[in-house]
Every structure is written in structure tokens, then in C-alpha cells.
Amino acid sequence: ARIGEVAAADRAAPREPASEAPPARSPTVATTATGDARADYDVAYAYLIQRQYDRAEMAFRGFLQSHPRDRLVADATFWLGETYRERNRPREAAEQYLKVSTDYARSSKAPDALLKLGMALVSLGAKDQACATFAEVERKYPTASTTLRQNVDREQKRARCTA
For the purposes of burial, counting CB atoms within 10 Å of the CB of 60, is it exposed (0-12), middle (13-18) or buried (19 or more)? Predict the structure, then answer.
């Protein structure tokens, strides 16, 4: 029973960086919102950086539910996709990346989301759709960063897309 108690305590007390006080409750969609959009986003992002992907998922979901019109929604949606990608859940990741690239096509995360969507599609065995998605990055975002364009090229080669 001791191991179960430790696991339950672990779930009840998420760890934050030493510079921040940890929340006193387990993060759930219903309880993560503080009312301060930036603070909620920062908590979620801190979980992501700490590789606590389950907690980051819940915190980003809570942020999106509590702040659906905030300027950070596109970023939070992208990072939610990353929590899925990191846990080898490409279908859920693809859904989030698609949302960013369509609903928030003008956001700074949209080009990256399109790249990641292509990568998720490759993981799902949808090579033709992935190759079309990679090509879409260049078409929709001709001024994308050199790094992003290099990443697209690398993924096109990896997927054996034909020009």
C-alpha cells in the first residue's frame, strides 16, 4: 500500500521549478485556471519544459477551456499537440497541429504546426497527405525561416516525397 500512497501523493502535488510555488491541487481541466491567462499558460508551459506531458496536457486543456479567445490560444494548441507527439500519440497531435494551421493560419506557430502535421501524418502511414502538407508549408509561408525550410526539406527526404 506504501507504493500506492506515494503514487497518489505524486499525483496530488505537481512539482514546479523551485522559484515558483507548486499548485496545491492536482491539475485538472476544472482546477488549473487562475483567471490570469498568462499565469495559466506559463504553468502549462513549465510542465512541458519539465517533460511532465500528462500534466502539461491537462494544463493546456484547462487554459484553452478557460481562455478560448486569448492571444495565446494558437500557441497553447500547438504545445498541446506537442504533449501528444512526445507521448507517441500522432493522431491527437495531428488534430492539434491541423487546428493551428487552419484556425490560426496567421499565428507565428502556424508554419511549425504545418511541418509537425506532416510529421504526424508520416507516423500514421499517410505518406501522400504528409508530402502534400510539407509542400503546403512552402506555398503558404514563402517567408518562413531558413531553419523551418530546412526541416521541411529534411522531412520530405525522410518521407521520400517526390518533387
Answer: buried
40 in Cβ contact with 59 (< 8 Å): yes
Grid coordinates representing 13?
A: 502535488
C-alpha grid cell for residue 72? Answer: 495565446
Would you say residue 23 has pLDDT above 90? no
* Mean pLDDT across 40-61: 98
Cβ atoms of 129 and 121 closer than 8 Å = yes
The structure's pTM equals: 0.79
30 vs 133, which has greater pLDDT? 133
pLDDT tens digits for 95-147?
Answer: 999 999 999 999 999 999 999 999 999 999 999 999 999 999 999 999 999 99
* Cα 117 to Cα 122: distance, rounded to the nearest angstrom: 9
CA angle 93, 51, 91 (to 5 degrees): 10
User: Quick one: three-class SS letters along the chain?
Assistant: CHHHHHHHHHHHCCCCCCCCCCCCCCCCCCCCCCCCHHHHHHHHHHHHHCCCHHHHHHHHHHHHHHCCCCCCHHHHHHHHHHHHHHCCCHHHHHHHHHHHHHHCCCCCCHHHHHHHHHHHHHHCCCHHHHHHHHHHHHHHCCCCCHHHHHHHHHHHHHCCCCC
